[in-house]
Amino acid sequence: MKVLISADMEGVAGVSSWVHVTAAEGRAARPTSSIEYERARLRMTREVNAAADGAFAAGATGVVVADAHGGKRNLLPDELDPRLRYVTGTDNDLGMMQAIDEEGIAAVFFTGYHAKAGTPGGPLAHTSTGWVHDVRVNGVSMGEYGMNAIIAGHFGVPVALVTGDDLAVAQTQALLGERVVGAVTKQGYSLSSAQHIAPQAARDLIRAGAIEALGRLDELEPYVMPDGATVEIDLDHQARVDSCGYLPGVERAGDRTLVIHPANGYEFGKFWRAILAAGAQMGM
Ligand SMILES: [Zn+2]
Predict the structure, then answer these.
(1) What is the pLDDT, as a whole number, of residue 26?
(2) What is the pLDDT of residues 223-238, one digit of tens each?
(3) Which of 92, 98, 172, 203 has the fewest CB atoms within 10 Å of its CB?
(4) What domains are there in the chain, each with its CATH number?
(5) Which residues surround ligand 1, an ion (CB under 5 A)?
(6) Gap from CA of 70 to ligand 1 centroid (Å)
(7) What is the pLDDT of residues 146-190, one digit of tens each?
(8) How close is the Cα of 8 to the center of ligand 1, in Å?
(9) Helix/strand/coil (H, E, C) string of the chain?
(10) Distance from the alpha carbon of residue 154 to the mean position of ligand 1, in angstroms
(11) Tens digit of pLDDT for each residue in 190-213?
């Protein structure tokens, strides 16, 4: 039994500002601090190690971690548990879920996850980028936790553990079921404020959560998107919808809303990444 960890950063204990999660080469519009970022990525790496250690303690025979934040090279390789294999970088096939198609993956852990765009009190809440306002699959609103669960579901793999802020955990469990184990690293106050537990306490909670999660694996089911589902995506500006409208299979459904009908969860992921690329271009 192998585990894939999809490791994001915004939900890590001690993280509550874009400064914590933005590398120096990040968007010029955001302030960066190499000291703050370096400390946050070390805590991110240690939370991944805690999840992996719990997985191995519960009988996992292998753990792969996909760096799932920003440019996807935040994890500190030299600090990783030596039993881990890890994925870095962008423009691969499955994005935040890279390696989910690997033989023998039986469970997914989401670490460092955050709430969906627009969640009141959700620290650093967003959905992939600052300009996506909502994603609805057959009318059900979801954030990255749902979209990545759909990709895992396509490969028959359930989400077993989610770690992050209280709202990220609550939204994930509301969508995927209460049997998904949650480890809450902080209580959100606002987009940029939270009350955290100490990093070591968070790691202890995550390790225990990983053990519990693999212990109840037979109670969990993959989250499978119905074939041909209707997916609506609200963006912040009609110009982005204009850009995305050039993509085959993408329809306009209002000033700032797109509609797609992916054949399956894998195609959903491909659509999503094409929309992110096309929508980043604003007509001038
Ligand atoms: Zn992120």
Answers:
(1) 61
(2) 999 888 999 999 999 9
(3) 92
(4) 2-132+142-219 (3.40.50.10780), 231-279 (no CATH)
(5) 8-10, 69
(6) 6
(7) 999 999 999 999 999 999 999 999 999 999 999 999 999 999 999
(8) 5
(9) CEEEEEECCCCCCCCCCHHHHCCCCCCCCCCCCHHHHHHHHHHHHHHHHHHHHHHHHCCCCEEEEEECCCCCCCCCHHHCCCCEEEECCCCCCCHHHCCCCCCCEEEEEEEEECCCCCCCCCCCCCECECCEEEEEECCEECCHHHHHHHHHHHCCCCEEEEEEEHHHHHHHHHHHCCCCEEEEEEEEEECCEEEECCHHHHHHHHHHHHHHHHHCHHHCCCCCCCCCCCEEEEECCHHHHHHHCCCCCCEECCCCEEEECCCCHHHHHHHHHHHHHHHCCCCC
(10) 22
(11) 999 999 999 999 999 999 999 999
